[in-house]
Amino acid sequence: MATSRIPIPRNGPDLSKHRPKAKPYTVIGRIPLDIGFSMGDMVNRSPQHTKAHMPTFNDTTLQSAGLPAMQLKFGWPGYEKYDFTETVPMAGKSNGQIALAIAGAYAQFFAKALRVPGSDSKFAITPSSPWCLGNLTLRAVHHVCSDIFMAEIEYTPHPRGMMS
C-alpha cells in the first residue's frame, strides 16, 4: 500500500518581539535531516536506534551557527497565537542529538497543544485527530534568524490502528 507524504505548513514566528543576540552568529538556512522514520520512534526508542538509521547523525552542521541553544518555534497552523517555543541545547551536540531533542520538544508541544483550542480545524491537535508523533517525520531544521529555528516536518498517513 503506497502512502503519501504531506508537508505540514509552517507559519513564521512573529519576530517583532525577538531581540537579536549580542554575540555574532551565522544564519545557516535549511539543514536537511531526513531521518526517515517518525518522531514517535525517535522519542520512544533508544538514541542508538536513531544513530543506526540516520547516516548524518554525527554531523555538526547545526553548530556552525555558533549558538549554545536554539529557540525552536512551533508554527503549527492554528496555534500561532500561543507562541509555543522550546529551548533546544546545541553546544557540543551532533545534528542527530539535536534532532532527538527536537523530537522531544515536539512531544512537549503536542502535550501543551492538546490543552488549548487551535483556530484551524484541519490541523487541530485533539485526541481523535490524525496528528501525532507516530505519523510525523522531521525532515529539516530552518534557521530563521538570531537563535530562532523552525522544524520542517512531514505527515505520513498510517493505516488505521497503526498510529502511536
Task: Outline the secondary-structure elements.
Layout: E1 6-7, E2 30-32, H1 39-44, H2 47-53, E3 69-73, E4 85-89, H3 95-113, E5 136-145, E6 148-155
Shape: globular
SSE run: EEHHEEHEE
Number of strands: 6
Distance between the termini: 19 Å
Overall pLDDT score: 84
Unreliable sequence segments? 160-164
> Fraction of residues in helices?
10-25%
Number of helices: 3
Strand residue content: 15-25%
Class derived from helix and strand content: alpha+beta
> What is the alpha-carbon Rg in Å?
16 Å
Main sheet specs: 6 strands, mixed
Structure description:
The protein has helices at residues 39-44, 47-53, 95-113; strands spanning 6-7, 30-32, 69-73, 85-89, 136-145, 148-155. The protein is of the alpha+beta class and 164 residues long. Strands 1, 2, 3, 4, 5 and 6 form a six-stranded mixed β-sheet that branches. A hairpin with a 2-residue loop joins strand 5 (136-145) and strand 6 (148-155). The protein is globular, with a radius of gyration of 16 Å. 29% of the residues are buried.
